Amino acid sequence: MGDPVQLKDEGNKHFQAGDIDKAIECYSSAIKVCPDKKMLAVIYRNRSACYLKKEKYNNAASDASKAIDVDAADIKALYRRCQALEKLGKLDMAFKDVQRCATLEPKNRTFLETLRRLGAEIQAKLKTTFSTDSRVQNMFDILLDEEMGKENKEKAANNLIVLAREDAGAERIFQNNGVPLLLNLIATGKPEMILAAVRTLSGMCTGHKARAMAILHMVGVDKLCSVMAIDDEEIALAACNLFQCINDSLTGGDKREYGKEEALVLDASKDLKTILLSLLEMVASKKVSGHGRDQALNLLSKNVPRKIRKEKDNSRTLFTIDHGLKKILKVCGQVPELPDQLPLTENTQLIASVLLNKLYDDLTCDPERANFKDICEEYIKSKIDPKDMDKTIHAVNTISGLLQGPFDVGNALVGHQGIMEMMVALCGSERDVDQMVAVEALIHSSSKMSRASFFITNGVSLLKDIYKKTKNERIKIRALVGLCKLGSAGGDDYSLRQFAEGSTEKLAKQCRKWLCNPQIDTKTRKWAIEGLAYLTNDADVKDDFVEDELALKAMFELAKSKDKTILYAVACTLINCTNSYDKKEIIPELVQLAKFSKQHVPEQHPKDKKDFIEQRVKRLLKAGVTSALAVMVKADNSILTEQTKEMLARVFLALSENPRDRGTIVAEGGGKALIPLALEGTEAGKVKASHALAKIASISNPEIAFPGERVYEVIRPLVSLLHTDRDGKQNYEALRGLTNLAGFSEKLRVKIVKESALPDIESYMFEQHDQLRQAATECMCNLVTCKEVQERFLQDGNDRLKLLVLLCGEDDEGLQTAAAGALAMLTAVQKKLCTKLTTVTLQWLEILQRLCLHHNPQIQHRGIVIVYNMLNSDDSELAKKLIESEMLEILSVIGKAEDSPKRQEALDAARTCLVKAMDLGLIKPFTNTS
């Protein structure tokens, strides 16, 4: 063994001579035999210098660290580690080491220079790291790295999606070879990668015509269709959204000015036509999954028919009918129980029926409608083949689809010779699937009273026979629904019962039994609700149903399931249970006249009276109806038709009738669910939803009822209820709702003003109806803190201020409170109004004195505050006029009164007025003489 000191000295000589390898050899030998820690630290530090020369930076940093472990203030070791770390690219760690060196030797120029240089390099690196270009590249590197962890990949995917939603970020991704890289992500075949890529492309295509067109050409319509065809609901939905973003950008959704770049934006009509043809191809392709087919149908449903009927051009609809109607009919006719059928979801056939209905509604003349019917008739005839039962039931199922869509077309086809006979023949078939399809077609075809009457005569025995004989539960339940439908043909007219007393209750009991049986598949249980949708026209049935909490909960669970074809039946059942359908007003004189002329007079069931309805509403709320409705509102747009939306809005309105129930509705998400119903749908549906919103908004905390930004969306529906074509109750509830919102925040007040609500609110302040006038004045009281509202009162040539003053003189205390409150706030913030107040009416002083003498402490306090504002208005003549009047005596009497908790605010305000009068020199303080 050698001497460590001697070995160290030899190493130093070799180092000075430039023989670095020999020096490392000596230092390494010395380290092995050195027992002294301090000496060992020196040797490690020296070997670190050797490794720096040899550019072995990891070894250099390691040796320097070992020296620092012994002596944290070893300045040479710190600097050598700094140099090694810098070369390794660990700038932040190197910076810390040199910072420590500079602290130990603050005047050392080498340390200070290194410190400055490293600081600048770190800043430059940070700038590069956080630049959009670098971020984009880093995200793609992470996503395409096979060894990268799942958490990092998810984070990178989300960052990419967020970045693409901003125009600058989307452009950066596009410019940095983003589209080919996104195609690489899709090519991985991993669902999470495909989803990230498609969502990023959606962001890039949103609101930018040129970029959307470029991406469409780079990716290709076929590629996008193949992604949407994947059997994954989330991917299909994301691809559908991408197509929609492209369509919106290409059809003029992008309103920005491009300047010179406008020349690059080519005509998009060819691309739009290609997309339309590709979607039609997807509709009937076996290679497309059920989810993909649903989204293709949804896109057609949303983008083909005209959005505004006033537009004359319906060429896209005509093109779709010519090139794709038979393909849509093919989807309607699919029978999943047969082999070699198209992949479908539970919702596909209903979405196809909705699309057929929209296309038919979009036609503008009889020849166009005749062509639609001819194509349908030709298709049905081509499928009827007595020798091929599978083709025949395909034809019958297609008619079922038409009966659920453009009913007139389906009804005309059912009326053709041989069709009805064929349906009846299928009911007697030995194959279960034939019976099932035939019974469904019979059910759908008896939607009109006249046809139902025909079936009551001819079809009841047939359905009863099937119901009794079949052992297949799925056919049995459909036959039962047919009987239910026929039994309810008279609607809620108590006098028009089709079946014997108690028969409908027995049918309903069987439906509830099936509904509550979890062993039966969802599609079959759906038919139990269909049956109840008809039977609940009978008040005895609906009353029994709402008492069966298990059946209610089973229905609500099904309403939340993926099978959205159930929505309409659930909505119908709830409409019946809450009696929220439109009822014609029965005029007693006309009833007498009808009886005299022996005409039929509808009768109301005793259980359809108000107290029974209220009890049913309470039971529905207890069973969780609101959460079910909230889920139903979020359903696929095509299945959630405008008619269904209207029914849901009617149910919500019925549920929110009692103020005590509104808290439950809010707690289960009813407030949020009502907003889309109030903004889209039929005119009647929007009004009903807006009215329900107004009821909730009038008594709820807006932050809880409509969390986040949703609260701003509530204002427009409420303002829409202020129009004169709405009834007084709707006007009143809307005003109360706006009052509550206006008292919540300045942002909401500004939003109310922006929605042009002020003229309507002001007009109701002139209303003869006391409650409406009070509600409007209370709303204005909460709005006057808004500058734009104050400016309206400052304008000349109107009676706004005069009206407020006169309303303060009314006998109604609620009205006085609101008007006086508004006047108190206005005169506090706008001193000019204090003087203007004296010019609008000669009665101003008398009204003000009445306010100050009022027995209601709230009104009295507001009156005295107005007086104080006038004294504080910088108008010395006005102040003098007030003090010279009886007002001084009124203020003195109030000010001298004993303190009282009930009237303390008024007493303090009066005393403040007297102090102000003294400050102005209008009265002198009372002094005792000795």
Automatic annotation (TrEMBL):
InterPro entries: ARM-like, ARM-type_fold, TPR-like_helical_dom_sf, TPR_rpt, UCS_central_dom. GO terms for cellular component: A band; perinuclear region of cytoplasm; Z disc. It comes from the Eukaryota. Transmembrane segments: none annotated. GO terms for biological process: cell differentiation; muscle organ development. Pfam families: UNC45-central. Coiled coil: none annotated. TPR repeats lie at residues 4-37. It is found in: Cytoplasm, Myofibril, Sarcomere, A band; Cytoplasm, Myofibril, Sarcomere, Z line; Cytoplasm, Perinuclear region. GO terms for molecular function: Hsp90 protein binding. Its main location: cytoplasm. Residues 298-486 form the UNC-45/Cro1/She4 central domain. Keywords: Chaperone, Cytoplasm, Developmental protein, Differentiation, Myogenesis, Repeat, TPR repeat. This is Protein unc-45 homolog B. It comes from Takifugu rubripes. The lineage of its organism: Eukaryota, Metazoa, Chordata, Craniata, Vertebrata.
